Amino acid sequence: PSHAIRGENLILECLYDLQGDSLYSVKWYRNGQEFYRHIPTDRPQTVVFRQPGLIVDEYKSTETRIVLRNVALTTSGKFRCEVSGEAPLFQTATFTNVLIVVDLPDDGPIISGTQPMYNSGDILSANCTSYNSFPAATLNWYINGQVAPHRLLKKISISKSKQGLTTSTLGLRLKVEKSLFSKSGDLKIKCTATIDPIYWKSNEESIQGFPERSYINFWNSAAVPYSSSSEKISMSFLICLSSVLTSFQLVKVS
Description:
By secondary structure, the protein is mainly beta.
């Protein structure tokens, strides 16, 4: 493999075809220094040369693979497997691969600095931080599912701990506009942290906009405005109706 996670056990394989020849030796190197040797005709057959960051499990290692326990950041390097056939030709084949040990972040990316609600025209200022990893995580901002334009991003310097782990932060500075809000009234911002090709995590927040106030202008509508004269008209109508009914009763009695 080209990548491993700190603390894991790792298997390095060296598969070969001797095409009828007998195996003389299998040797492993890191950064040009031999750390493992297997010669079937020797006693003991296997010899391990100790190096910083390399803990070889001799009992599980064979002529075609070695097992490294509890890999560390110092395990990283250029590994080479060298296979040689028996005399008299001692034909040799080699294979090289670069191994990078990764220390994953403590948690997913953290979004900070946002407010629960914004008015149109406000400035949304947010930071996305990924803590304690090696190498540093690559951060990206998304606005409503779209990659944030570079002009809205603010790069903040990467800090390192005594253990060599890095904390990376990327800022987002966005002027809030009405067009950014969905029909349901929210604006979504998301941050992703990536250590390619073995780590990807994201964090998303939903930002609400203050509802706009609306007023009904009765004077410009078809509604009839209420006035004191309307009450006078109604009262006079009732008085007239009462007079007519009284007159009718008097005429009937006479």
